[in-house]
Amino acid sequence: MIDAKTKQAIHLTPHDEATQYSDVNFLSNDEIIFGTNQNGEFITLCQMDWRTKKISGCSKENWDLDSTAISNSGEVTAWTINKEGFSEFYINKISFIKDRRFGELPEPSQIKLPAKGIVGGLEFSKDGSKLAFTFSSARYNTDIWIYDLNAKTLTQVTKSSRVGIPQSSFVEPELVKYKTFDGREIPAWYYKPQPSIVTVNLGKNNISQTEKIDTSFHPPNGLPVIVSVHGGPEGQERPGFNPLYQYYLSRGYAILATNVSGSTGYGKTYSHLDDVRNRENSVRDLAHAVEWLKTSGGADAKRIAVMGGSYGGYMTLAAITLYPDLWAAAVDTVGIGNWETFLKNTSGYRRRQREVEYGMLDKDIDFLRRISPIYKVGKIKTPLFVIHGKNDPRVPYTEAEQIVESLKKRGATVEYKLFADEGHGVAKLKNRLELYPLVADFLDKYMK
Questions:
Q1: Closest CA to 335 of 358, 356, 308, 360
Q2: pLDDT category, 55, cuts 50, 70, 90?
């Protein structure tokens, strides 16, 4: 905390163990509320008297606090909980009276959302009577909504374009959990393509009659499936609006979006399961995802692809080198192929932070080389599509070039798309419109 008068910095949360703090707001001149996992697995909402640095009144949730906001008067607090990837939205009115004992808060009210989805960007109106936020879900692209605290009503105030695509065509995922090598359950979101429905006129004798017929092709050997791996690795696959997923679904692909070991949102222990020497354990989780797809997910064992970006790109390359017989196709976007060159060439401000997660160049170089896909390129059998931006400050495009060059020397199947005007990902609309049909055509070539 900074004292605005003296300009002095005051450290409120000294600690020795790995701990997160987030979303700090003043509750009064002497009290703050914030999120922390200092005393447990999950980030929960806590209070502190900053003069004594005493933490109290922590909530007892077994899921992470996502975001918080407090009204200008300090009498209303709102927050969201990330429960299994969905947002739960709560609001609390607090009456400030002289004898209110620290840590005693009334029970919160839960706000009913338009659908199961993700809430962000909480902001109270100046008089505290309304609360604005963003909302998205698998079927709702991101828009701004306003909750009226007095009327207890919810209003959508923006309407993002869906360019004529009916909302009913968007697919909602099913939350599934599958067992991995150590018996632990891995959460994932399973999207299945919708059947194609046409209406035909069956009218006879001038009597109008229609019937809906499912014209979709049901593969006798099961669905073609894309296993998607999020970046981070300190990240989480959540069921918000994902236009790319909806595009692949429209092309007939199911998607299993995984939260492998090391993902956030499932507790402190889970998020550290892939640290340094355990790096390849999370890749084993992908192999067990394939097993679940074959036995319980209705997938065609010969038509399963793996795809990911950034750290998910590394996971994609690791999957096709460690388990080369499982995959029909793979797509690596801005992924890491060589841990040594990545850590040497990434932006300086990131290097130390990444070494803590992945391993130190001066201490762990042999291990880093051992887990680098570039040294296992000879095992790759899977057709691979590699995508990168030439201006990437996080994962230099030379990571992609190493993999592509090595595969081409072997005569392996590899396609490469380098965008001169992109960075860590493909953000520009013109490039996305060019790229993703190419990726879908690539998948069609090897999976249909």
A1: 308
A2: confident
- Asked which of 28-37, 291-300, 391-400, 432-441 is least confident by mean pLDDT, the reply is 28-37
**Planar angle of CA 345, 346, 350, nearest 5 degrees:** 140
Strand order in the sheet with 76-83: 64-70, 76-83, 86-93, 109-111
The residue length of the chain stands at: 448
Third-level CATH fold of 21-156: Methylamine Dehydrogenase; Chain H (2.130.10)
Map residue 379 onto helix, strand or coil: helix
Is 167-447 a domain of CATH 3.40.50.1820?
yes
- Where are the chain's structural domains? 21-156, 167-447
Return the closest-CA partner of residue 315 out of 258, 369, 391: 258
Is the model's pLDDT at 183 over the cut of 90?
A: yes
Q: For position 98, what pLDDT does the model report?
A: 31
Q: Which of 398, 399, 386, 373 is nearest to 426 (CA)?
A: 386
Give which of 84, 394, 340 is closest to 232, Cα–Cα: 394
Tell me how far apart the alpha carbons of residues 116 and 123 are, in angstroms, rounded to a whole number. Answer: 20
